[in-house]
Amino acid sequence: MFVFKKNYFLIIENINDISLSNIKRYNKFFIIYRNKKKIENIRDLLNFRKKCRLKLIRFFVVNDLKMAIKLNADGIYLSSKYRDFKPLNIKKNNFDIVGSAHNSKEIYLKIKQNCKYIFLSKLFTVDYNKSAPTLGLIKFNKYIQNSRTQLVPLGGIKLSNLNALKNVKSEGFAILSELKKKPVKIINRLF
Question: Is residue 142 part of a domain?
């Protein structure tokens, strides 16, 4: 079964996590580059960015405005740990800000930070912390009804529960860990 949404947010920690040749649809994918471990070669990142642009894939960098500008990214992703209220000095008109939140207080903060999309986590149980609280479909949909911004589900999304996303009233969803495990299977199910 396929999952049809307007936007797919793919969070990668390394440019080798995903093969852009597997992506065949244009203007639906957002790649969010979040590198915590090793520093990538700037030339490799620029080359990856060019490939994204050729496929009309929007490219975002996590919490690093200087890097986003250097790579000529489409925007910046502000994690839930980024709590600064001062406005980002962004001069590009088409530079978008997306962020992540775990509760109403963090959603309000991300609205103040002018986030176009807010990733609300955790929709389902995640492998790395089985006892962490989750929202579930009903609670997530209630958040969407009460919000003026575009909320995107994140967390615990796997091949086994991908069909459940049809019941989410969001325009898209974000995926991280399952993308690292089974990138080709996930990409193929998104059409």
Answer: yes
